[in-house]
Amino acid sequence: MNEVPLTHILFLSTALFFIGMYGLFTRRNLITMLMSIELMLNSVNINFVAFNKYLFPDKLDGLFFSLFIITIAAAEAAVAIAIIINLYRSHQSIDVDDATEMKF
Fold first, then answer.
1. What pLDDT band is residue 93 in, cutting at 50, 70 and 90?
2. pTM score, two decimals?
3. At the topology level of CATH, where does 6-101 sit?
4. Where along the chain do its domains lie?
5. 10: phi > 0 → left, psi -120 to 50 → alpha, else beta; which?
């Protein structure tokens, strides 16, 4: 069975991270920005799993870090969506430019 080289996995992870960073800096919609942050966190998870597999195949440290990040990302997404829904209910907009002009 042929294994995928580490460089290919790292290239994929880097591409995902920079796509997420591009989406975070160029989009003005809060939902899209949240999805971009999740994409960046998933690219970090790919790095943890890849380095764990290739550098320390006997240990599970990278997998545990990935599970921890997935748990934190789920909690962060739930809180962020609750804040976005509350913002939309009070101001009928989830645009970042509109949120900076709003007075609470």
1. confident
2. 0.83
3. Helix Hairpins (1.10.287)
4. 6-101
5. alpha
